């Protein structure tokens, strides 16, 4: 009977010791809270808020405390697709993405039940409100303006929750199918209209350039015809002068030949003494000129060739021939390079108002001197004859 009474207390102590050890381990486990570097935790004891636990090892009251985790990194919230009616009564659908960050974990714990769900719901209503205040075209074209408006609307309420809205991005804004078809038809019509305008402008530019090219061609042709008429008129004038001088010379020669026939008849007479009047002596001298083509100098030197008299040279302008040639070459030359530059300016769409008309060019040509190189050659040929 004594042996069993001694063994029972020893087994009970062992069990108690094990229970105490287990309790101690659980207590220590409950007293230590390890917080990650990317988060903070709100500590409550008996349901009362005490403090925020910073990253690392933290000791808390065991069994009566609780912690609530808050991720301090930027978080992404998807805003579900929302339907809205624009100001011009066009239905559209849109969805967005909101980027948020917990700035004050205490407010996020005490001021709002679930800050993620709260921000998402607020973003949905704000998105519908912003789209409803805009025209359809603005909702499709002013994406950045929509983002900015939604962010401004979210800033004030989320700031009271300790949350900062870093960015809002509207991903898609789609009108209804009927509106899309109408927009496609409008875009197609606009493209056709622009194509027709461009084609008409091209045809107009082509017609303008063709007309200007014909105009330049007519100007050049008129200049050539005017130059040809001037040269032809000058040639006729010089030819007339030469024919007049030739007729005068031939008339004088006829008189001289008639006088020589008279002298011949006198010489056939029986008389050996002749009295010649001074006019007849002069006639003989002139006959000698025509026979030899030269004048006899008083001192009896060798004969010199006969040249045009001063009246004829002045009439023909032979003394000023070199000066006339230089002026005609300088003034009658057509400025082809300037015409090419004007034609290029017309092709580039510049104002062709500075281009001279054919009447102006012809009027200018009336003031120009003709080219007498051909006339000079004809005169040299006549002199050689």
Describe, in plain words, how this protein is organized in 3D.
The protein is an alpha+beta fold. It is 61% helix and 18% strand. A three-stranded antiparallel beta sheet has the order 3-2-5. Strands 6-7-8 form a three-stranded antiparallel beta sheet. It has a two-stranded antiparallel sheet with strand order 1-4. Helix 6 packs antiparallel against helix 10. The N terminus is likely disordered.
Q: So how many helices?
A: 12
Rg measurement, Å: 61 Å
Shape: rod-shaped
- Give the biggest beta sheet: 3 strands, antiparallel
The beta-strand count equals 10
Order of helices and strands: HEEEEEEEHHHHEHHEEHHHHH
Task: Write out the strand line-up for the largest beta sheet, numbering strands in chain order.
Answer: 3-2-5
Give the strand content: 15-25%
Mean pLDDT: 75
The residue ranges in which pLDDT falls below 50 over 5 or more consecutive positions are 1-8, 294-306
Distance between the amino and carboxyl termini:
184 Å
Helix coverage percent? 55-70%
Structural class: alpha+beta
List the helices and strands and how they pair.
Blueprint lengths: L1 H30 E4 L3 E7 L2 E6 L2 E4 L5 E7 L3 E11 L5 E12 L2 H6 L4 H18 L3 H6 L1 H18 L2 E13 L1 H91 L10 H15 L1 E2 L8 E2 L4 H7 L4 H11 L4 H12 L10 H9 L6 H12 L1
Antiparallel strand pairs: 1-4, 2-3, 2-5, 6-7, 7-8, 9-10
